[in-house]
């Protein structure tokens, strides 16, 4: 028997991409959908994502952004260190906080910080950044396999799935797998307009993953961002597929992959 689940990374208020991903996941046939956190940030109209999640019974965990919005903290706890990145992060955070209604803030406050699943005898942990810290950045180029094994062994897991960085990747260690499922909120700094989600096909003999590109009406999203007064730097990323902010956090290899 095979159980297939869909994993959505940071939505970042991109309700149009979320809607497209739900439709795509339904078409390919999944048993359950999960959101790995950061429902808000970056895009327009925060309240439009929540009905899609709730009405489609998508189980969510709490990302750093969700914790901050839900508890009305001062910033997004994104983990940036550069002043420029924190400047734009604060603009995005203030907009999302001001435009998320109280009922959805309560929804965000109640989300679990992780989910541990046992499916077909496979033990899977869904987290946001890493098993030890919600806003930890785990990059492919700087995350050694023995570090992944440490996480897996501590919890007796077969697979860990996270998001947070905005760039999908996977690694097979001796103990099991780590998968960054990507994000729905913005492109991957690769010059493409589409975004990504991940499916897992789970059997008693193992877990197979697949990354799925999601095409959506990015031009409509850009227009709505402009109407909402969201910085043009964010809109440029949606249109071009190249990051204009958050570049400081990228390790050298990931930064080089996105050079243009």
Supply the key terms.
alpha/beta; Purple Acid Phosphatase, chain A, domain 2; five-stranded mixed β-sheet; 260 residues; 20% strand; 9 helices; globular
Query: How much helix is in the residues?
Result: 25-40%
CATH topology: Purple Acid Phosphatase, chain A, domain 2
Proportion of β residues? Answer: 15-25%
Q: Which overall shape is indicated by the principal axes computed on the Cα atoms?
A: globular
Number of domains: 1
Structural class based on helices, strands and sheet pairing: alpha/beta
Rg calculated over all Cα atoms:
17 Å
Low-confidence stretches: none
How many alpha or pi helices?
9
Query: What number is the mean pLDDT?
Result: 96
> What is the string of helix and strand elements?
EHEHEHHHEEHEEEEEHHH
Q: How many E strands?
A: 10
Distance between the termini: 45 Å
The main sheet orders its strands as 3-2-1-9-10
Outline the structure in words.
The protein is of the alpha/beta class. 34% of the residues lie in helices and 20% in strands. It is built from nine helices and ten strands. It has helices at residues 15-28, 49-55, 64-70, 83-98, 102-109, 145-155, 218-227, 232-240, 252-257; strands spanning 3-8, 32-35, 59-60, 115-119, 122-126, 159-162, 169-172, 177-180, 195-203, 206-214. The strands form two sheets. The protein has a five-stranded mixed sheet. Strands 4-5-6-8-7 form a five-stranded mixed sheet, covered by helices on one side. Helix 3 (64-70) packs across helix 5 (102-109) and helix 7 packs antiparallel against helix 8. The model has no long low-confidence stretch (mean pLDDT 96).
């Amino acid at each position: 028997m095979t159980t297939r689940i869909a994993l959505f990374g940071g939505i970042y208020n991109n309700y149009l991409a979320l809607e497209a991903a739900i439709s795509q996941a339904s078409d390919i046939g999944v048993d359950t959908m999960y959101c790995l956190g950061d429902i808000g940030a970056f895009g327009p109209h925060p309240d439009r994502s929540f009905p899609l999640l709730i009405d489609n019974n998508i189980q969510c965990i709490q990302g750093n952004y969700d914790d901050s919005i839900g508890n009305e903290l001062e910033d997004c706890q994104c983990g940036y260190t550069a002043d420029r990145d924190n400047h734009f992060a604060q603009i995005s955070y203030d907009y999302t906080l001001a435009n998320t209604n109280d009922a959805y803030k309560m929804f965000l406050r109640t989300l679990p910080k992780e989910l541990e699943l046992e499916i077909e005898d496979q033990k899977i942990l869904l987290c946001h950044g890493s098993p030890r810290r919600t806003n930890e950045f785990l990059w492919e180029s700087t995350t050694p396999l023995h570090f992944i094994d440490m996480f897996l062994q501590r919890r007796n897991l077969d697979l860990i799935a996270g998001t947070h960085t905005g760039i999908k990747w996977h690694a097979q260690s001796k103990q099991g797998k780590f998968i960054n499922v990507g994000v729905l909120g913005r492109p991957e700094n690769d010059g493409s307009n589409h975004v990504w989600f991940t499916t897992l096909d789970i059997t008693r003999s193992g877990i197979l993953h697949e990354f799925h590109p999601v095409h959506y009406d990015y031009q409509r999203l850009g227009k709505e961002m402009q109407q909402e007064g969201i910085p043009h730097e964010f809109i440029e990323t949606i249109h071009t597929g190249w990051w204009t902010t958050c570049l400081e956090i990228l390790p050298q290899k990931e930064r080089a992959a996105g050079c243009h």
